[in-house]
Design goal:
alpha+beta, Ferric Hydroxamate Uptake Protein, Chain A, domain 1, 2 domains, 3 helices, elongated
């Protein structure tokens, strides 16, 4: 009986050793494969970076920075200065990237109906403005915020204002 127990224990330890060795070998092989892939990827990235110049210069060439004011109509005004966006972004994509926005698509374009829970109602709604730097004044466009394409250094504003005062006050 003792010999049989010893045989079973020895057999179990042999199975354990073989399966442990096989598992360790599998994971070592996987580690080697992924480590080599990482090194090749890093080498390729460094080669690409060297060919393209400084990575920050590359990023600047495909992005733009703007300043966005969100005025909630209750005295709360939040500036998002130096906001990075892809080239070709609009005032609409800017506010989408900064706040929780609801909107409707109308025949006249996108209409922002709510920003961070402040929703249009019978007395107030969301207006957007852009800053004309040459004239040093705010412009209230008569077209959708999805049509205003941003440029580097632009300043725009989304303001929750009353419909009863026209034009609405300039954002500050």
């Amino acid at each position: 009986m003792e010999r049989r127990a010893f045989t079973y224990i020895a057999l179990a330890m042999l199975v354990w050793a073989i399966s442990g060795t096989a598992t360790a070998g599998y994971y070592f092989t996987q580690y080697t494969i992924y480590h080599n892939e990482y090194r090749n990827l890093a080498k390729g990235f460094n080669t690409l970076s060297g060919a393209m110049g400084n990575l920050s210069e590359v990023m600047e060439s495909i992005s733009l920075r703007v300043s966005v004011l969100v005025s909630y109509g209750n005295g709360t005004k939040v500036w998002h200065n130096n906001t990075a966006l892809p080239v070709g972004s609009t005032a609409f994509t800017a506010i989408l990237s900064l706040a929780n926005v609801r909107y409707n698509e109308t025949s006249m374009g996108i209409l922002v109906t709510s920003v961070d829970g402040f929703a249009n109602n019978s007395t107030h709604g969301w207006f957007y403005w852009y800053r004309d730097t040459e004239k040093s004044e705010w412009i209230l466009p008569n077209y959708s915020c999805a049509e205003y394409i941003l440029h580097r250094g632009d300043t725009i504003a989304f303001a929750y204002e009353s419909y009863f005062m026209w034009p609405p006050p300039f954002p500050t």
